[in-house]
Amino acid sequence: MAETKSPAGHDEAPPGEDGEKPGADISFPYDRMTVEQFRRRFPRARWSDARKAWFVPGRTASRRIGRWLAEMEAEADAHADAKGRDAFVFDPIDSPYLEFGKAGFRIRTPYSKTVVDKLREVPFSRWDGDLRIWHVPFRSYEELRRRWPDIEAAARRNEPEARRRRAEARKGTEQDIRSKRRSAERKRHRYPLQSDDLPPIERPVAPAYGIVVFIDISGELVEPDVIADFYPGVTEDRVWGHWRVPTLEELVRTWPAKVPPVEDAEWWLPTLEELRPARRTARSREARKRAKAP
């Protein structure tokens, strides 16, 4: 397996670099010459250890990456692509999620974190945000094929009909009842906090819910017996804190913690890895609000 790794001297992207800017990811097997060529073409690109990929900022990043890859592939050994094409013809992947194209494979699936993670591991894979498909060159066929059972299984699990059947099967079960009660509790926008370890007010922090902003700590004592199913281990010294969802501006302005939370922490300052998806979600949420506005 060709391992994608970061060259010495290139660390995680600076705070907010790819959290609030459009762009595209790209991964490829590490070698010094390839990295040097890539960095000359994309001087603003930053390596992400968490995503095991390079992030290229900019609204046209996907197209620019595509042109660079086309040039790289033209310069590389043509036998690698020919070998990949021959391997596919001899032992093809038969799947509704994969199409055979002129320059490689086009992959379109329902969203799944497993699919995204697996495809990011494939050398030279790239996501086309405009067409909403993954591109994988022929030369990466063997790497793609090794991961394909997991990719296809995750894609099928996330088909709307499969999700609907699972939801129907859960109806009326103890799991379904607990899930509904948990959802109802979540909608109350409250969280039991230790009275001697209270988070800051009006600042994004991360309890078990994800990133939230506490707006009030009432002093009302929590009744452990009532909420034991939702907050295991809650004791009588807890008080209710009321929270709201943070805005995109708040998340962009939040400076990430440099170290992960300590073990058993009940709330912590969010890390860069937590802020990135929260910013993307907030950006989508605010875009939907603007679209609905008269």
TrEMBL record:
Residues 1-28, 156-189 are annotated as: Disordered. Residues 8-23, 169-178 have a biased composition (Basic and acidic residues). Residues 179-189 have a biased composition (Basic residues). This is HARP domain-containing protein.
